[in-house]
What does this fold into?
Amino acid sequence: MTPGRLVVLLVALGLAGGRPLAAGETGAAPPGRGLVAIWSGCYDLFDQGRIAEAGVQWRAPRRLWVLRPFAGGMVNFEGSYNLHAGIAYDWRRGPWTIRPSFAPGYYDPGGGKDLGHALEFRSGLELSRRLGPRVRVGLELYHLSNAGLADHNPGETSLVLTVGLPVPGRR
It folds into this structure.
């Protein structure tokens, strides 16, 4: 199965699956300090030189209008890293969340793939399932590109497994 078909299948399952919300349940996480999402997966999924990556992201507890701010970073095993901050939209359907996101950020190729510019744009789509009031597990497909800011713009696409956990601390 191709990665594109996998994403379509996961989105379709997310729209069709899940239990209905109980009376009085909104599907939203209780207020707190936000979520920390950690992930691991495949960097440069569609290239011959696929390698492992890991990352972390803080997801704000409050919205700006309908969008939720976030900030994070990733590193791969060739020493490339990306630091980013952006916005996302959490569309909930039962225990499932579909989360498109966009973030500009700083990219350093280290010993890895040169994406052509220090400014790279991260666009992603995550499908996750809520396992508790504030715990999510999901898959995210995201792409890094300099959007034509440089003549060299190979881009890269990652597929990662994410786990979202509540930020520890007092409320």
Q: What stands out?
A: Residues 1-30 have pLDDT under 50 and may be disordered. The longest strand covers residues 119-132.
